Request: fold
Amino acid sequence: MALHLARRLLQSVLILLGVTLVTFFLLYVLPADPVRQIAGRSATAETVESIRRQLGLDQPFWVQYGRYLWGLLHLDLGRSYLQRAEVAELIAARLPATLLLMAAGIACEVAIGLAMGIWAALRRGTAVDTGLMLASFAGVSAPQFVVGLMLLYVFGVWLRWLPIGGYGTAAHLILPALTLGLLGAGWYARMMRSSMVEVLRQDFVRTARAKGLTRARVILRHALPNAILPVIAMIGIDIGIFMGGIVVVESVFGWPGIGQLAWQAIQRVDIPIIMGVTLVSAVGIVLGNLLADIVAPLIDPRIRLR
Amino acid sequence: MSDAVALPEPRRRGVLARLARRPLVLAGLAVIGLTVLAAILAPWLTPYAPDQQHFDGLTLQGAPLPPGGGPDGAFPLGTDLLGRDLLTRILYGARTSLVIGILANGMALLVGTLVGVTAGYFRGIVGALLMRFTDLMMAFPALLLAICLAAILRPSLWIVALVIALVNWVQVARVLYTETTSLAVRDFIQAERAIGAGHGRILLRHILPHLLPTIIVYGTLGISTTVLLEATLSFLGIGVQPPDPSWGNIIFESQTYFQAAPWLVFFPGLAILALALAFNLVGDGLRDVLDPTQRERD
Reply:
């Protein structure tokens, strides 16, 4: 177990290193000149050159990347080109909002998805089952920004129940979390359904039923704990899917998280911030996968490690 | 004389028949068919040009017209902020979605298949390196990467397709890698090798045909992802550029005004949802029908 863990950790670190290398390389070769952004349009060629030298952008690729890694080793993500601040500080200021949204979104997804999946499994083969599965497909096929905007329209503009974007109170959290929840629930519903159908077929469920237990008890105490295991591993993977989508949700709802930070930085070619947010997201994804790997055998002793 | 034993094709016919029995698949195929028709017949389905700005397409205050607005309901779905007919833009937008869907997904499939099959069949250092690279790509926040690339490269239809392909090939590669490795050690491949068949022959005649069902399934499901990704990039203003209509950029252009004119978000949004859902339904149906391990489910 310890050896396995150590190997997975090492692997994760190597993957993260690879992510920084690829991102750095892409930003290096792409025809975007951050110096032009910093210097402004009217800057003379001399000013441009001196800024370039100051930032070390005149150096060859490996020198620049080496410097970046050296900084990273000292937990230094660099300084923003355009905002007078450390990238680490900018991200630290925004990260809590993103994590809050992520937690609320995943909670919504799991709640809606599990309910749908269990219900569909119990009504397997009926119109309810088909309807729920169609709904779960619709959820995973719906564009995030459209659902977000429509929810904003219905609950914010039309009914006036909830604020139109922003951040601060619990009311602000409901719509973005619901947007994520409605869309992501589809994956959980489908997974929960097939897992539940599988478990309901098992002998021990039949035994429980034969013992004369109530239907609710059979489902909640016997079937559910077994069926839910593969779903839990999925939460880890879901963190990755979430990390990819933060830019869109945060921009629709004006949520002040790292997604908005990234979006502004991308538009202004503020490379240190882009690097920082990509790295933080990749850490989230890798941690999520690692968690799925570690938690699964802990809660399910049937998954034995080699 | 003896070679006249005509082998029937039960499996192939079975696939189509079983597909046709699924109402959700049929619904999906219908939506895809309608979208293709709309894309091809757009000039005949609407009297307007997609970028035509109508004098009577805005209210006196300069606001867009709601659905059914205009003289004698000339604009069935209303108009946009520039007084253009929304239905016309959605019909022409279908072209963008389909072209990018097919283009980007084709590229992703090609790269994914090449990487997956090469790594799975030849293994060795090259295979290991390729798969480590796909592992790495899996850890990338895909949408963030796509947004970053699309924003920095001045977007055009080709760039958008390329960016989408760049983030979408990974899953195909991983699935095909797993399948190829398990195929490569099977007896019939070993036998083929024993009688002296070259790698090219084995790959083309034996490995690829066995992978075809998976490629078809992922190809179909992938179009759904592609349609959504294109819409998202266009919604952020870094996908297909106005005045060329795309379902995503119609919403991008009217986003600031959506509180007063929600139809400008609703209808193109519905189109995106319908097309993505259709490809998902058909892809899922195909998976059930083509994958023998899933067959006993129903």
